[in-house]
Amino acid sequence: MNFIRGQHRVLHFVKYLRLHRTSWHRYASCESSKGSGGGKGIVLGLYEKESGKGPRLTAAGEKFDDRVNGKISELICETKITGRLGRGKVFNNVDTDFRCICVVGLGLEGIAFNELEMLDEGMENVRVAAGIGAQSLQALNCIEVHVDHMDYAEQAAEGAALAIWRYDDNLSKKYRTIVPKLELHGSPDLDSWTRGLFKA
């Protein structure tokens, strides 16, 4: 009797896999794609959903979404990304130019200076999101990472540059981590971006 129940569970699981096979291939988390390497990646910011509103991409993210005919928005809905700070997903093979697209949460939109903490939380959130996104793409061996400015190009540069930096001069070449080249995406403010890279 137990053997029959076990067989029934296996058959049910196989049936489940067949039903969801297409959705598994449409997106991938960082862990499932570590084998593939090279190419360009991009980090896009996503604001957290608020009461009555779903999560919303940044201005640069919305432009990129239009470029890929709304596929990013569709994948965000499918994977139920909420835009919570530092949480996100890496999507593969959505765009021809960028092999990996990392959508990462920025927290609530419009957060400003916190007087109790003496900290601009909006800027800090950008540092966190850019850093996590860049590090996720570095783990996938992307050699070039384009980072959404997320309204604060300087802070995005700081977060991304600090996150991917590694001191591995004493390691042999085969053990060294690939440090991707960072590029600003969706903003002409190269001065702020360069300043952020210099500070990091």
Which structural traits does this protein have?
6-stranded mixed beta sheet, 6 helices, single chain, aminopeptidase, Macro_dom-like, Leucine Aminopeptidase, subunit E, domain 1, metalloaminopeptidase activity, globular, alpha/beta, two-stranded antiparallel sheet, hydrolase, 8 strands, 200 residues, Aminopeptidase-like protein, 18% strand
Q: What do these coordinates show?
A:
It is a single chain. α5 (153-164) links the parallel β7 (144-148) and β8. It is built from 6 helices and 8 strands; from the N terminus they run αββααββββαβαβα. α4 packs across α5 (153-164) and α5 (153-164) packs parallel to α6 (190-199). The chain has 200 residues and is an alpha/beta fold. It has one domain: Leucine Aminopeptidase, subunit E, domain 1, CATH 3.40.220.10. Helix content is 42%, strand content 18%. The model is unreliable at 1-36 (pLDDT under 50). The strands form 2 sheets. Strands 1, 2, 3, 4, 7 and 8 form a 6-stranded mixed β-sheet that branches. The chain has a two-stranded antiparallel ribbon with strand order 5-6.
Helix-strand blueprint:
Elements: H1 2-26, E1 40-47, E2 56-57, H2 59-67, H3 71-79, E3 88-92, E4 100-107, E5 113-114, E6 119-120, H4 121-139, E7 144-148, H5 153-164, E8 181-185, H6 190-199
Parallel strand pairs: 1-4, 1-7, 7-8
Antiparallel strand pairs: 1-2, 3-4, 5-6
